[in-house]
Design brief:
- The complex is a heterodimer of chains A (about 350) and B (about 375).
- Chain A is of the alpha+beta class.
- In chain A, strand 4 and strand 5 form a beta hairpin.
- Chain A is built from nine helices and seven strands; from the N terminus they run ααααβααββαββααββ.
- By secondary structure, chain B is an alpha/beta fold.
- Chain B is globular.
- The interface between A and B is medium-sized, with 27 and 22 residues.
Chain lengths: ~350, ~375
């Protein structure tokens, strides 16, 4: 459908240009006729004719303009829908990984709790007997309680089991917290965003994808200015970049049998009060002949079933059109790829959205 | 009194392994718990000693759970194989179902894990005899029940499962669909009503527990189909249905009716799986061996203990006590009838089995 709209827009633009030329030609004729010194009546006649022509052309222009505006609106709507669908597609692909992380953590936390209940059944009697001993009841009960055959094992395992359960619960909370960036429906409210935190959340949510294939490092400068932007849209862009990086590394691992790859995400101050976000990977790299097309809608080098080719086109739209930023790519085949995103910080006056 | 059991847990998350080991710390003295963080380490341990059970995560880097169990099936056919999965996409789940005897989902309660291990421990004592061990190991691989049975069991365990979902599952397996319709239409259920080709009606009539047993039986028959002669297979199927039909009538009014039906239907599953194999030719007394083999398999496939016991004893009345084994008594009686033999008089008397029900029309 987008192809149609684009074709229509291109067509309308061409017609506008043609109309513009017609008007120029008519104006020149008017000039020419007037300078030619024709009779006053002849000139008057010409003028009347020309005025009529101009009025007609103006009406046509207006109609074409309206058509163009409508087509552009439709295009914008279609793109919004695609962004939403793409977001669900991206999250959907991650759902299995996220569920796995949560279920795994829940497994060992539950097992540890089960152990701890029985462990304390062995240890608490010691405390009770100790109290008794201190109260003068003798030490026999205490000695007996201490002699439980699994006492040593239990004493060693209690602290480890509590520590690991703590880790597990922290992990679960982290993933659930990170998901909030992605769970909210499309909101067009701009907010002051902490890009470092946004990146961390996205990395957490995507962990199932990169865990076995790459090391991920986030390097952020301290005291970064906040960015005024759309939280869910920017998370979407980051998620796309990370998943693309993982796929590129996976392809390279598959081709070369290489070990884990590396994804580095850098956040730094850029020129003119901007914030620069860079996502680098050690994947296959983008072939020079493809580089100019990667932001085109539906362009993809991936096999069928692996994404719709919308990710970078949508990223481009979000960064450039909706955040007035820039997005560029640097890549070398066999070495890797780096995407650089410049976002104006909120400290610079924000122009109209 | 605990028996000996050597178990291997495999998971790439060391905290999961430690958690499970701790959880089992006081469950059984004779149990040896071993841990491995990847497939290669697991195979290394399995090569050194005999393990009764392997329980593996699915998602692991390098060799995943299904790939590991595929190798275990080949190298150590007598070891029970279980998947304990964190979350698996559908394609991986199918691969896992083909090689695992049980499929458990995380988070899995300690009680469930212990249940799997206890069954294995119990069955270990059943197959203490070398001839039996040889019998089981000789089956090409310990067969896994039809994927449909697993999925059906999982679906039925989910109380929210809709009848539509169940039907969709049954429909995917044409042999099972045919069997469901056949039984629902048989004199056992039809009560003279018009024959139904309506799968939904059939499923409702049979109920969910019978459905699982039918799925399992179908799976076992299709597996055996590879090695058996057609007449032998047909004879076994006819016997199974006749016995199941009789059990249904005899057990009328009892809450264990479905267990009795299942026990009768699946009583000869051990014979089914040995048919056409080397063991069948070598074993002098197939009748002695196959009930234990069948019981072993049904146990590791998670069928209720009553059904497992009934299958184990269905040709040996002297193994069935005078009380407390009602399902076994019914199954023994019905299998005898299916073989054209007289039922055991002691069992009929001790369990007050009303044989006149078998002569009646529709119960």
């Amino acid at each position: 459908m987008t192809d149609d709209l684009e074709a229509r827009i291109a067509h309308l633009e061409a017609e506008l240009v043609a109309r513009g030329r017609t008007i120029s030609a008519l104006s020149e004729r008017v000039e020419g006729t007037f300078r030619g010194g024709a009779s006053a009546f002849a000139v008057f006649e010409q003028n009347a004719l020309l005025e009529r022509l101009v009025a007609e052309r103006t009406r046509e222009l207006q109609a074409k303009h309206n058509e163009l505006t409508r087509a552009l609106d439709e295009l914008r709507q279609a793109q919004a829908q695609l962004v939403q669908a793409q977001k669900l597609e991206a999250i959907g692909a991650l759902a299995a990984g996220i569920a796995h992380e949560i279920n795994t953590s829940t497994q060992y936390v539950s097992d540890n709790v089960s152990f701890l209940r029985r462990a304390f059944d062995i240890v608490l009697p010691v405390v009770a007997a100790a109290r008794g001993a201190v109260a003068g009841e003798g030490q026999d009960a205490l000695r007996a309680a201490l002699q439980h055959p699994r006492m040593d094992y239990v004493l060693r395992q209690i602290p480890r089991s509590l520590e690991q359960s703590d880790d597990g619960l922290t992990r679960i909370a982290k993933i659930v917290g990170a998901l909030k960036e992605f769970a909210h429906p499309n909101s067009s409210q701009r907010e002051l965003l902490n890009l470092h935190q946004l990146v961390q959340s996205t990395v957490t949510v995507a962990r199932g994808e990169w865990k076995y294939l790459a090391e991920v490092e986030v390097v952020a400068e301290p005291d970064l200015p906040p960015v005024l932007g759309l939280r869910y849209e920017l998370s979407q862009v980051l998620l796309n970049m990370i998943v693309n990086a993982v796929h590129a590394i996976a392809d390279r691992c598959h081709d070369e049998g290489a070990p884990k790859g590396r994804i580095t995400i850098g956040i730094a101050r850029g020129p003119a009060e901007s914030v620069v976000l860079q996502v680098s990977d050690t994947g296959t790299g983008i072939a020079p002949e493809h580089r100019s097309r990667i932001f085109d809608p539906f362009f993809t080098t991936k096999p069928v079933g692996r994404g719709t080719g919308q990710g970078l086109a949508i990223a481009y739209d979000i960064i450039v059109n909706r955040h007035h930023g820039t997005i560029t790519v640097d890549s070398e085949v066999g070495v890797g790829t780096t995407f650089s995103i410049h976002l104006p910080s909120s400290l610079r006056g924000e122009s109209t959205p | 009194m605990s028996g000996q059991l050597r178990v291997l847990f495999v998971d790439d998350e060391p905290r999961v392994l430690e958690g499970i080991e701790r959880m089992l710390f006081d469950v059984a003295d004779g149990w040896e718990i071993h841990l491995a963080e990847d497939g290669d380490a697991a195979l290394g341990l399995l090569a050194q000693q005999e393990f009764a059970v392997v329980i593996s995560d699915m998602r692991m880097p390098g060799m995943d759970g299904a790939a590991l169990l595929e190798q275990v099936r080949h190298l150590h056919p007598a070891t029970v194989r279980v998947i304990l999965s964190g979350q698996t996409d559908e394609r991986s789940a199918r691969r896992a179902l083909r090689v695992a005897h049980r499929f458990l989902s995380k988070p899995c309660s300690g009680a469930n894990i212990v249940e799997v291990l206890r069954r294995a421990e119990r069955m270990n004592s059943v197959i203490a005899s070398p001839s039996l061990r040889a019998a089981i190991a000789s089956v090409d691989q310990l067969p896994t029940p039809a994927a449909t049975y697993y999925e059906l069991t999982a679906l039925l365990a989910d109380e929210g499962a809709s009848i539509q979902a169940i039907m969709a599952l049954v429909r995917r397996d044409p042999a099972l669909t045919a069997k469901v319709l056949q039984i629902a239409n048989s004199a056992m259920f039809a009560r003279g009503a018009a024959a139904t080709a309506d799968l939904q009606g059939a499923v409702l009539v049979l109920g969910t527990r019978l459905l699982s047993s039918l799925a399992l039986a179908e799976g076992a028959f299709s597996h055996a189909g590879r090695g058996a002669s057609a007449p032998a297979l047909a004879a076994m199927q006819a016997r199974a249905l006749r016995a199941a039909h009789a059990a249904w009538r005899l057990a009328h009014g009892s809450e264990d009716r479905e267990a009795a039906f299942s026990g009768a239907l699946l009583a000869e599953v051990g014979r089914l799986l040995l048919v056409g194999t080397e063991t069948e030719r070598e074993v002098r007394d197939m009748d002695e061996v196959h009930p234990s083999v069948g019981a072993y398999l049904l146990s590791i496939w998670g069928l209720p203990d009553q059904v497992v016991d009934a299958v184990a004893t269905h040709r040996r009345a002297n193994l069935i006590p005078d009380q407390g084994a009602w399902v076994s008594a019914v199954v023994h009686t019905c299998m005898a009838i299916a073989h054209g033999e007289s039922p055991d008089a002691r069992l009929v008397r001790c369990y007050c089995l009303d044989l006149s029900r078998l002569d009646q029309g529709d119960a």
